[in-house]
Each structure stands twice: as structure tokens, then as C-alpha cells.
């Protein structure tokens, strides 16, 4: 009987430990899901507000609002009592109700530094990651996801074109035509490397015109001006008319 009680106590203890482990595992999984959903909601909101105006459209604004709403609804049972989350849900629902009339308040930004270009590129890469993850979760179908991935590729191309164009124009303002020429050449090469360069023909023409202007400035700077004194001309002035033979020897 004592042995039976001991065994029963052991089994009970094992059962309690096992139950505690299951509860802890469930709590950890719940915390992990809550943290993951919170992070994804934050990223969608930051992309919606932070993308430069030239990259944001009403359709993209609606997509990000739709994704954030779906993620927030999954988050709500895991984060009960979160008043900020409830308020955000109402805001997102109101924004989605506007449809194509949704407001796009993103301000267009000039991209003329490497840091600005990297920041925008990282945001587009994050947008791509959010779309891929949403597709795996069934929030976006494959056809829609494919269209958005293509659009992101287009935005990345525009980003590089704007960067090289802005960098070249800045170099021209700083009287650095050689640096400007290099930037314009890289922009042209980037367009020509695109699988479908047709949508960028207007940018290509602009870059070619800017490149021609930079080339002209480089040539102008390289050719010595005749009205400016140079070492040879100054040396020639030192000779008298009677020393014509010296001039002939110089030549």
C-alpha cells in the first residue's frame, strides 16, 4: 500500500510538472505570436507613413492598411485590454472604408545621398518581405502578390534612377562635371540593364541630355582658354622681336 501511494505520488508529481511545462510552452508560444504580430503591425504602419511620396499610391496605402487590420485582428485575442490596439483597429477600418479616396499624405523626397537611397531601399525590401509573409499566411493571393512584387521591382528601379539623377545634378551645382558625368552614366546603365526598359524611356532621355551637358562642361574645362596666360605664352613674351630665331628654336 505504501509503495502504491509512493508510485501514485510520483505519477502525480510527473503529471503536475508535465502540465506546468505545457502551460509554460503555451504561454511562450502566445508571447511569441503576440510579439511577431505586434512587430508586423508596426512595420506596416511605418511603411504606410514613411515611404517617400513618389513611391506611395492609394492602392499601396490600402494594401498596407488591409494587412495591418488583418494582423491586428489576429493580435487582439492575444492582447486583450490594449486600448491603443482597439483604437487603431477603428482607424484602419475607417481608412479602408474610403477606398481609392484614401488620403496619401506622404511627402515626395529628393534622394541625393547614399544614406537616403539605402533607407528607401531597405523600406522597399521590408515591403517585399511583408507581402511574401502575408501570402504565406493567406492574407494575399498569389496573383495579387505577384503584381505587387513586380511593382516593388519597378519602384526599386525608379529609386536608383532618381538617386543617380539627383547625385549628378548636385555635382553639377558644385561645379564637378566629371563626377556628374559618372553619375549620369551609371543611371543610363541601370536603365539599360532592366529586363523591360520601355517604362523608363523618359528618364533615359533626361539622363542622356544631362550626360551630354556634363560632357560639354568636362571638355570645356579640359581645353585651355586662349585668353588665359599659360607658361609657354609667358615665356614667349620674354623674348624681344630681335630674338625671332629663339622663338623658332622653341617651336
Give the terminus-to-terminus CA distance: 126 Å
Q: Architecture of the largest domain in CATH?
A: Alpha Horseshoe
Top-tier CATH class of the largest domain:
Mainly Alpha
CATH topology term of the largest domain: Serine Threonine Protein Phosphatase 5, Tetratricopeptide repeat
Which residues form runs of ≥5 with pLDDT under 50?
A: 226-251
What is the number of helices?
Answer: 9
Helical amount? over 70%
How many domains would you count in the coordinates? 2
Shape: elongated
Helix/strand/pairing category: mainly alpha
Beta content comes to under 5%
Instruction: Describe the main β-sheet briefly.
Output: none
Average pLDDT: 85
> What is Rg?
33 Å
What is the string of helix and strand elements? Answer: HHHHHHHHH
The tally of strands reads 0
Amino acid at each position: 500500500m505504501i509503495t502504491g501511494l509512493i508510485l501514485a505520488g510520483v505519477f502525480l508529481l510527473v503529471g503536475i510538472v508535465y502540465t506546468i511545462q505545457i502551460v509554460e510552452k503555451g504561454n511562450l508560444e502566445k508571447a511569441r505570436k503576440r510579439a511577431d504580430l505586434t512587430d508586423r503591425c508596426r512595420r506596416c504602419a511605418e511603411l504606410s507613413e514613411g515611404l517617400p511620396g513618389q513611391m506611395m499610391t492609394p492602392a499601396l496605402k490600402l494594401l498596407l492598411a488591409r494587412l495591418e487590420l488583418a494582423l491586428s485582428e489576429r493580435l487582439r485575442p492575444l492582447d486583450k485590454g490594449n486600448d491603443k490596439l482597439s483604437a487603431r483597429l477603428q482607424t484602419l477600418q475607417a481608412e479602408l472604408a474610403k477606398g481609392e479616396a484614401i488620403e496619401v499624405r506622404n511627402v515626395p523626397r529628393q534622394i541625393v545621398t547614399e544614406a537616403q537611397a539605402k533607407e528607401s531601399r531597405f523600406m522597399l525590401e521590408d515591403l517585399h518581405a511583408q507581402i511574401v509573409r502575408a501570402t504565406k499566411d493567406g492574407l494575399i493571393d498569389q496573383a495579387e502578390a505577384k503584381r505587387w512584387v513586380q511593382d516593388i521591382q519597378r519602384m526599386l528601379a525608379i529609386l536608383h534612377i532618381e538617386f543617380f539623377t539627383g547625385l549628378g545634378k548636385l555635382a553639377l551645382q558644385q561645379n564637378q562635371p566629371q563626377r556628374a558625368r559618372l553619375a549620369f552614366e551609371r543611371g543610363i546603365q541601370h536603365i539599360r540593364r532592366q529586363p523591360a526598359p520601355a517604362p523608363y524611356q523618359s528618364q533615359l532621355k533626361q539622363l542622356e541630355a544631362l550626360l551630354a551637358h556634363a560632357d560639354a562642361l568636362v571638355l570645356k574645362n579640359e581645353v585651355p582658354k586662349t585668353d588665359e596666360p599659360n607658361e609657354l605664352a609667358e615665356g614667349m613674351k620674354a623674348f624681344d622681336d630681335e630674338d625671332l630665331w629663339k622663338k623658332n628654336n622653341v617651336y
